[in-house]
Amino acid sequence: MSEQIFNPNPEFAKDAAINSMDAYWELQNKAIEDYEGYWKGFADEKIDWIEPYDTVLDESNAPFYKWFSNGKLNVSNQCIDRHLADKADQDAIVFEGDKGDVQNITYAQLSERTNKMANLLKNKFGVKKGDRVVLYMPMIPEAAYAMLACTRIGAIHSIVFGGFSAEALKDRIEDAEAKVVITADGAFRKGKPYMLKNVVDDALSQGGESIESVLVVKRNNEEITWVEGRDHNYNELITEESAECPFEPMESEDPLFLLYTSGSTGKPKGVQHSTAGYILWAQMTMEWVFDLRQNDVYWCTADIGWITGHTYIVYGPLAAGGTTVMFEGVPTYPDAGRAWKMVQDHNITQFYTAPTAIRLLHKTGEDEPKKYDLSKLRVLGTVGEPIDPPAWKWYYEVVGNSKCAIVDTYWQTETGGHMISPLPGATPIKPACATFALPGIMAEIIEEDGTPTPVGEKGFMCITKPWPSMIRTIWNDPERFKKSYFGDCKKDGEPVYFTGDGAMIAEDGYITITGRTDDVINVSGHRMGTAEVEAAIKKHDSVAAVAVVGKPHEIKGEGIFAYIVLKCVDDACEDLKIEINKVIKKEIGAIALCDAIAFVPDVPKTRSGKIMRRILRSIVKGEAITQDTSTLEDPSIVGAIEKIVKEA
Ligand code: WT7
Questions:
Q1: 221 — alpha (psi -120 to 50), left (phi > 0) or beta?
Q2: Å from CA of 2 to ligand 1 middle
Q3: 193 and 101 part of one domain
Q4: Rounded mean pLDDT of the chain?
Q5: Is 411 contained in some domain?
Q6: What pLDDT, on a 0 to 100 scale, did the predictor assign at position 625?
Q7: In a domain, 277, yes or no
Q8: Structure letter (DSSP) for residue 609
Q9: What is the number of structural domains in the chain?
């Protein structure tokens, strides 16, 4: 099946934004010939500039690139105000709650609520341009209002995924030195209320001194504790605010938001995105990759706590003037047909999710999609990890009824938007293949010195020219930014952006992503740094040393497997494993829990003390050890560990 090619549906291609490979190459060749001219054309066409920019791309302080310098714009204008003339009554957001409650929010209402929230932040809490606001929110429309309200007044939001622990939340608040936290009492999942505000309370009792105010949205109306003077009730205060808050003219390069992500050390990185470049590419990819058209209803199942939720639930769809669906619940509750019922009920035209969700939906309800009318669907998207051919096939045949394009979108938190993806009206698709770089993106698979990796071999996935929506820096740590992304690969002697992924190019130019080349595990499409999990595990008193690796998992893609050396061998027992997982839950959150733990006498280290993770990965997969073990401090340890893992 991997040799099969699926051509775009001609009926659909006819009206698509980019409707043939010729059209694709016309754009890409224009970018190759005149890179700045190419981007200038789109920036002028798409962005509602308050003041014009003077330079398209400023490379003078590489790799701290600047795009559209000195231009002024506002992202909330780009996403709301400029649509009001002709779309005031169109749905901007369609919200469906866990229990099936629906709210249709028009662009006029979105404007009103965003303006009120902006006024509240500005007038009541004194939030000013450049201040950081942390959002610890469930998937409710107020999360979108809060994001847009921040951008309206020039505050920098930093969303912390609701699955992170108090400890993780506190660390992120402190790194960003945030002034305000916006949260909710909690929300609903699988028919039951769950809580968030108490986690904020915990975080702030441990630190986070910079926080002056906590704004609480009421969603599930469960009882919560209020800290006098610090905590404020959104639902009460918002009624007093005016629905008019002029938007702050922002410089193109002003930071738009921070989003923390795992890296190769224990400390998460605050990825900083810019204003103009980010919103431009969010909008363009929305129009191209999802082929968003008038009257479309688009649904992305991500959480706003991840980059997909930023770019493809809020900023991209709204900048493009679309209708975006927000869902509070999980796609398999109350039954395996929930997602498909929603697609039917809301007339959804584009559906975007992750391979882990596709595998889960497939496993729990193979024929479930057939029970619903999914005939409006045109484009199906996937993101987060390489999709396996069986999941792809089910998605294509059963969900898409063999007539929808599948866009396997490859990108990262740091790229801001899609980098490599099929275009639904143009690209002949190969299953489970990200295909080609999008027009304007110079993606190359190279060796460290910049020589192209031979066809069919694994190389480093690099983006060799800066692009508008790229990460600008790591908050408070420009050196780490340089080292993390521009330290590994060079082209023509100059450092180029390395994604951390491996990839292969085929004879015909098709690109397949092969996965991370660094110590990062991809759990359910989310990045988890091994160092971060190890740092958490080390906090347990019984632990002397630890190494974690990814272990293939049927639904999650990869699960976390920990090799732990105890200070005292006699402590080893099942209860200790539970206790260690509790520490992880406290330090990071449930998303980082280990699927399995093996207590081992030691971990394989080189004589210089470096853990040989490759050996540990092979052991967990049950593969034969092909690496040279003679350089190990104690080669006999490998056999001992293999025996323990086999017996476990
Ligand atoms: C990493 C980025 C981008 C939003 C979700 C995750 C992997 C992402 C694909 C894909 C193969 C993919 C990469 C990347 N990845 N999309 N279509 N095919 N791998 O964002 O947490 O920043 O993780 O996810 O390894 O580096 P993230």
A1: left
A2: 21
A3: yes
A4: 96
A5: no
A6: 87
A7: yes
A8: -
A9: 3
Judge whether 440 lies within some domain: no
pTM of the entire predicted model: 0.97
| Among candidate residues 195, 128, 183, 130, the one with its CA nearest the CA of residue 159 | 183
CATH number of the domain bearing residue 502: 2.30.38.10
Among the candidates 516, 548, 569, a domain finishes at 516
d(CA 215, CA 116): 13
Same domain, 491 and 542: no
The ligand 1 site (C-beta within 6 Å) comprises 261, 307-308, 383-386, 408-413, 434, 499-501, 513, 516, 522, 525-527
Q: How far is the CA of 388 from the centre of ligand 1 (A)?
A: 14
CA neighbor of 135 nearest in space, from 224, 200, 212:
200
Same domain for 510 and 524?
Answer: no
Predicted local distance difference test score (pLDDT) of residue 1? 43
What's the average model confidence in pLDDT over 324-333? 97
pLDDT at 120 exceeding the cut of 50: yes
**Percentage with pLDDT > 90 across the chain:** 94
Residue where a domain stops, chosen among 516, 541, 571: 516
Over the stretch 575-586, which tens digit does the pLDDT of each residue have? Answer: 999 999 999 999
Tell which one of 273, 303, 385, 511 to mutate to probe ligand 1, the residue whose CB is within 8 A of the most ligand atoms.
385
Average of pLDDT values for 47-61? 98
pLDDT of residue 608: 87
Residues 112 and 248 in one domain: yes
Q: Are residues 473 and 541 in the same domain?
A: no
Q: Which protein residue has the closest C-alpha to ligand 1 atom 14?
A: 412
Statement to judge: residues 241 and 289 lie in one domain: yes
428: its two tokens:
């002949």
CATH no. for residue 525? Answer: 3.30.300.30
- For residue 620, pLDDT over 60 is answered with yes
- Ligand 1 mutation pick, 411, 520, 530, max ligand atoms within 8 A of CB: 411
Mean pLDDT for 128-136 is 98
Q: Is 208 left (phi over 0), alpha (psi -120 to 50) or beta?
A: left
Burial state string for 406-420 with b = 16 or more CB within 10 A and e = fewer than 16: bbbbbbbbbbbbbbb
Which residue range is the domain that position 83 belongs to? 34-329
Question: What percent of the chain clears pLDDT 70, i.e. is strictly above it?
Answer: 100
What is the separation of C-alpha 469 from the centre of its chain, rounded to a whole number of angstroms?
14
**Residue 157 in contact with residue 135, Cβ under 8 Å?**
yes
The tokens describing 274, both together, are 């810019």
Same domain, 454 and 567: no
Q: Whose CA is nearest to atom 1 of ligand 1?
A: 412
Compute the distance from residue 471 Cα to the ligand 1 centre, in Å: 15
